[in-house]
Amino acid sequence: MRNLTDPPRPLAAGLGNSNDQTRRHNLSTILTLLAQDGAQPRAQLTRRTGLNRSTIAALVSELAERDLVFETAAPGGGTVGRPSPVVNPNGRIACLAVHPDLDAVVVGLVGLGGLVHGRIRRETAGVPTAEQAVALAAGMATELRRRHAGVRVVGAGIALPGLVRSPDGLVTFAPHLGWHDEPLADRMAEALGVPAVATNDAKAAAVAELIHGAGKGARNLVYLNGSRSGIGGAVFTGGRALGGAAGYGGELGHTLADPAGGPCHCGNRGCLETEVGVEPLLAALGRSAADPDELDALLASGAPDVRVELERQLDVLARSIASFIAAFDPELVLLGGFLGSLFDVDPERLRLRVREASFAAISEGVRIERAELRENLVIVGAAELAFAPLLADPVSLSASA
């Protein structure tokens, strides 16, 4: 089983090819453009792909026959001659998305184009085992399918805080969950009755931001996500996820941030996720927990003890970001989860510290921003990864679904 954080083609759709032998490639190109950029007139698809109008008409017709797209009339007025029909991705073709975490399991039902039909969160009494996560996910998936009976499910994506191996999706180590060598993708596929893929939750979030959020249009990106499970990361170069030899590429939370720092659960000292974390921030606030929106407001309160910890963490984060810029030469660094909250309190301090710690010739022009998508970020990303086989080959996968 492939881990689709290293997709069969770049996330961007690319250009079409007029050779008849590449019909499947052209179908893939059209469906990917629609799934990532939304409804478009046939004329716009013609311009974007470089294919002629008759070829586009034939491709759209075939995708419509397979129930993957549908056409609507163009908005009226202001055009000369017959307006070009608008081609829409069929959002009722959907994937399940599963996100196990420390205290809950979330399952979403996401249609082509990032349309979230529904989302259920079930809290757990403690950290769930892999078996409990599968059982909870199966029950929630059944409930979502019942609520949305007209939706056709073609796959499932699982995103979790841990190391997930390519190409089989084995969860080799999820330290915060206490999972070791769990064949989670295979178990979920059996329980849910559809093909399943598994990935790290930060990689899933990065995919969602690249396709539907603040990273749209970027080809070279570093994404960092902070949660109570630690800091996860993902790197995209040339539109492709950095996977590495075993699929662990982008594990940025366990890069060295401070040689004199505290011990990390991974066995080292001074890892980024050890030196930058939500727990010290909550402690400074006198809180044991806070939801994301509440955390934004609490961190912006300006309390002196909170400010000291905020500035310490921002400075550590800045040094790490400067190292990532030197290593990966991104055009954009995106911060999600509590790192986004941290950033929003004092974005200029972070940007200044990054510039101070960077090689100017490389860092000049790099943007640092907060991720746009919020509560649905991970489930949309997990679903997008599960859609990858369909987008790569609409013929074989839509026929067998």
Automatic annotation (TrEMBL):
Region (Disordered): 1-22
Lineage: Bacteria, Pseudomonadati, Pseudomonadota, Gammaproteobacteria, Lysobacterales
Family as reported in the entry's similarity comment: Belongs to the ROK (NagC/XylR) family.
Protein name in UniProt: ROK family protein
Stored Gene3D superfamilies: 3.30.420.40, Winged helix-like DNA-binding domain superfamily/Winged helix DNA-binding domain
InterPro entries associated with the record: ATPase_NBD, ROK, WH-like_DNA-bd_sf, WH_DNA-bd_sf
Family matches, as Pfam families: ROK
